[in-house]
Amino acid sequence: MNLFTLSWKNLLHRKTLTILTVLAVSVATALIVFIFLVNDGLSKNVGKGYGPFQGVVGAEGSASQLILNTFYHVGAPTGNIDYELYEELAENRFVDMAIPMTRGDSYKGSPIVGVPSDYLSIRYPEAVLQDGTIYKSAGEVVAGSYAAEQLGLKVGDEFHGEHGVTETAGAHEEFTFKIAGILPKLGTPDDKALFTTLDTAWLVHEDHAEEEAQSGAEAEHHEGEITAILIKPKGIMDVAVIKANYDELDGVQVAYSGKETANILSIVDTGAGLVKVIAFATVLVAAISILLSLSAMAAERKKDIGLLRLIGKPKSYIMAGMMAEANLLTISGILLGILLGHAGTYFLQDLIFSYAGINLAPFTPILAEVYLLLGGILLCTAVTLVPAIRSYRVDPVQLFQT
């Protein structure tokens, strides 16, 4: 019987302990693989989030919230600003292009974004509609590919939008939207949005203005108000000039798209770092589990080891056997963990995209997996030294004395 076969049979002899040890290693590995896949998706997709629009003008408040809501469709707008501000910026000598935007409502969780259709042609000049035509009048909608798929929308379908970003806030039953076209997959958060004309938000809320005023509530969209202005500057430093001029206005802010995105990524990286610490702590627990498992096996098989010594097997054979068992446990756990990490990413990718607009590639191999395998083998070898040394030091004669 060769060394590998013997080691495998020894592991199978203690099925429960072997399975628990492999699971401990696989869970730690799966968590680390998932974290790296998400980080990889973030780094590859974050630059696509804002395209050529290096600045955003919006209501005073959190700059990060303004960027997240405008480009990534996360959270609520910071408030409204006057449409006249857009008209002024459109004529500004430092601005190559300004795009006004209204938003705040949704349909079954998908944001409804009011924006001139120029936005789509500028952001995605090579994109061709899957079906239908671009929107031309209020109420006509072009759906992102992900939104259309998840909501089962097709050209000609009609629906009623909802207040805010959740379904629980109530619907605008008096206003009907109609799907005019379906976008191709763009690979950005815009895949999960529903696009319509800028003035649609004003028309939707027009009937509610008197009712909201009587109840003391503030109308979400008055005619002539928008939530953001996307700025494509003429030069790389021109956003700074625009910010210096317009930040002084009451209730208005100018946010740098790249800077705020980097700040958001920094926060995400901090959170991911904490999760990595937990993951590596889990790896340490898995290593201790391997050590305890092998120590228990060695204690149970003292007579077996003594018998091997009596029939002439050298100490190196005993030690190599322990190492082989440890590495079988480790490699099996890591390979299973890699598989679970990719599978988990696959099943969670829709949830992650629906919330943050981050596209993941669940079955893309990552370099970290090689490091996990090599590092796991080295760590396993290190923790196995103690039980392995104890095993080959067994005195076979004493074991069989009565």
UniProtKB/TrEMBL annotation:
Q: Which residues cross the membrane?
A: 17-38, 273-296, 317-340, 370-389
Pfam families in alphabetical order: FtsX, MacB_PCD
Q: Which UniProt keywords apply?
A: Cell membrane, Membrane, Transmembrane, Transmembrane helix
Using the record, list the residue span of the signal peptide; answer none if the entry has no such feature: none
Q: Which InterPro entries match?
A: ABC-4/HrtB_transporter, ABC3_permease_C, MacB_PCD
MacB-like periplasmic core domain ranges (all copies): 18-208
Q: Which domain of life is it from?
A: Bacteria
Q: Does the keyword Membrane apply?
A: yes
Membrane topology field: Multi-pass membrane protein
Q: Where in the cell is it found?
A: Cell membrane
| Residues in ABC3 transporter permease C-terminal domain copies | 277-395
One GO cellular component term noted in the UniProt record for this chain:
plasma membrane
Q: Does the keyword DNA-binding apply?
A: no
Family, according to the entry, reads as follows:
Belongs to the ABC-4 integral membrane protein family. HrtB subfamily.
Subunit-structure text: The complex is composed of two ATP-binding proteins (HrtA), two transmembrane proteins (HrtB) and a solute-binding protein.
What does this protein do, in the record's words? Part of the ABC transporter complex hrt involved in hemin import. Responsible for the translocation of the substrate across the membrane.
UniProt protein name = Putative hemin transport system permease protein HrtB
The species this protein belongs to is: Rossellomorea vietnamensis
